[in-house]
Design brief:
mainly alpha, 2 helices, rod-shaped
């Protein structure tokens, strides 16, 4: 049985582990082949250096992509800010136009109301005058009828 750990798992496994820090094989130490090759400290350091270089290359590439992304995002936010400022200006202008139109309409409505009020007052005055005239004519006719109804009035009038 091969031990995959560089330290003993139990008292019986002590003989199967290696004690040489420069030989990092995971084999049994007694020549049994477990499909893994022996790797020296120098080979391991070289492999780790190669892996480190690959990781640094990937990290540098990611840093570059992140910087490009930040630049793109900054441009997008700047564009959005400009667009929002333009929209705000348009809304403010529109609000001013609506306020001006509303004030103009209010003035026209006020003028029409005043004109109608004057016309209504004139009609009231005309109606009052007409009523007074009709009342006067009816009173005069009633007076004539009363005079004609007086007995012997025809002798006085001729």
């Amino acid at each position: 049985m091969s031990n995959l750990y560089p330290f003993p798992l139990s008292d019986g496994d002590v003989a199967k582990t290696t004690t040489d820090p420069h030989n990092l094989s995971h084999g049994s130490g007694n020549g049994e082949g477990d499909g893994m090759s022996d790797m020296t400290r120098t080979e391991l350091d070289a492999k780790l250096g190669q892996n480190k270089a690959e990781v640094e290359s990937v990290a540098a590439s990611m840093r570059q992509e992140m910087a490009e992304f930040r630049s793109f995002q900054t441009q997008q936010f700047s564009s959005l800010t400009t667009t929002l400022a333009d929209i705000k200006g348009d809304i403010t202008g529109f609000r001013g136009e609506v306020t001006g139109t509303k004030d103009g309409l209010s003035g026209k409505i006020e003028g029409m109301r005043d004109g109608l009020s004057g016309q209504i007052d004139g009609l009231k005055s005309s109606v009052s005058t007409m009523q007074w005239m009709i009342g006067s004519v009816l009173a005069f006719l009633a007076l004539i009828a009363a005079v004609v109804a007086i007995p012997g009035i025809d002798k006085i009038l001729h």
